Amino acid sequence: MNATSDGHRPVREATRTDRLLAALGGLLAAYVSLAVADLVASRVRPEASPVVAVGGAFVDRTPAALKDWAIRTFGENDKAVLQLGILLVLALLAVGIGLLALRRRALGSAAVGAFGVLGALAAVTRPDSDSAVDAVPSLVGAALGALLLYVLIGRLLAPRAGTGTAAARADRRSFLVVAASTGLAATGAAALGRAVGSPVEENATASRAAVRLPRPASPAQPVPAGARLAVPGISPFTTPNRDFYRVDTALVVPKVDANRWRLRLHGTGVREELTLTLRDLMARRTVERDITLACVSNEVGGPYVGNARWLGVPLADLLREAGVRPPSEGGSADQLVARSVDGMTIGTPVEDVMDGRDALLAFGMNGEPLPFEHGFPVRMVVPGLYGYVSACKWIESIELTTFDAYDAYWVPRGWAAEAPVKTQSRIDTPRPFGRPAAGTVMVAGVAWAQHRGVRRVEVRVDDGPWQEARLAAEDTRDTWRQWTYPWEAAPGRHTLTVRATDGTGATQPERRTATMPDGAQGWHSVVVTVEGGE
User: Which letter, b or e, does each residue of 93-120 get, where b requires 16 or more Cβ atoms within 10 Å of its Cβ?
Assistant: First the structure.
């Protein structure tokens, strides 16, 4: 006979099988906790899910270098990898808690409850949380998980008249019956929650479907016929919405109900605060522009750049209406801090927004309302600046302040406060380690230097002389340009290198630098092996 500390009643000695089942009980308790919490979160707010809340807190506290590594390594799957990692850690902890409960049943159940409290604290302390109700999913899930673990361990080692093999088998059968039925119930509840959906997300989806974009008062000029090159493998001039890069910290894409959305403009130098609805914005003078966006995390030759046709209202018009003046005109604010519904803050130089460039509050992208992934209902688009200092998605507030008074989200994490886009060029085809046939090989790609434009692109084969590539027609200086170079390829291994010169006459430097603190630079090269010949 053995004794637990819960009631000091005699129970049989735990065996290896009991320990395996206890570990399973811990995993099941964690699974039920998360399934129930997600179900409750779907009715409260999807971002209140404990995995999302804890993951968001982890992202906020992760060193910038580690975030940059994750983006380089996993690309746009970095958030899925993070959530998978969180689940794996929770699974290991759940196994330990199950084994703890085998010796101290109440203590094991209390450990499950403690994790629920941590999840609740993470949820209510997130920047996007505005209600204590966000704690409910974690607390409800943890309470049911703790109760389940207590019951399971009690069934596993219940005191019985007999202590032999038959009694042990009965204990385990009782354990497995409770475990199986509870696991099926939790799975069914989770499936039902997904099938029914979240009312928050349903309202947001319906509001987006109801949006009818206005006809622009200032439409984008037609893209010149020569701006789109028909070369297999080259990036299309206009990036489809489904292929446009997404780099942000949101583990769950915010689903904002456009009918309830408001934008507040306030702060230093604002004579008259503005609060605007989406309807208010779309009723104003709208403009349509082709603008290329780039992420500061984009390495040399990387994929985090895209070109789209944006529809919105000029941000400078709103600022002037509110009485804001740029520093060059004596204005008191030099930084515009945009806040997203998920709590992200992005700082943008007021001077850049008001210097005449097409800085937009955009609600349309390539002829449709913004996709949720790209900031519906409204986002900022500022040509010539990296996204982390300009392209706030899901924007809900614009505060005028100074760089001395406030550091936006990325600045304390090691990134520069101001970051104009650097001149870059990329070889799209042939691909790295490609094996083209000898003869004429079309080398092609894109180059960008937003708000300065691209004047020239050159290609070098191995250590040979630089040869000027053919540039596609320029749409505007705020968009990238395609380029091609017909290469007479001889058999063997070759290195192709590209560089661009911007509209000011500055050629991108050779030496490669890291993305931190204000964007990578350097020449992009690919190595290919040309096949054929004698």
Answer: ebbebbbbbbeebeebbbbbbebbebbb
- Rounded CA-CA distance 380/393 in Å is 7
Peptide bond into 486 cis (omega under 30): no
Encode pLDDT of 199-216 as tens digits. 888 899 999 999 999 999
Element (H, E) at 528: strand 524-530
pTM: 0.84
Which amino acid belongs to residue 262? R
Please give the backbone phi and psi of residue 170, each rounded to the nearest 5 degrees, phi first. Answer: -65, -40
Query: Are the C-beta atoms of 312 and 362 separated by less than 8 Å?
Result: yes
Mapped onto helix, strand or coil, the DSSP state of residue 111 is: helix
**pLDDT tens sequence across 45-78:** 888 888 888 887 777 777 777 767 777 777 777 7
3-state helix, strand, coil in the chain (%, to 5): 40, 25, 40
- The amino acid sitting at 160 is R
In the chain, the amino acid numbered 390 is: S
Residue by residue, what is the 3-state secondary structure of 433-464?
CCCCECEEEEEEEEEECCCCCEEEEEEEECCC
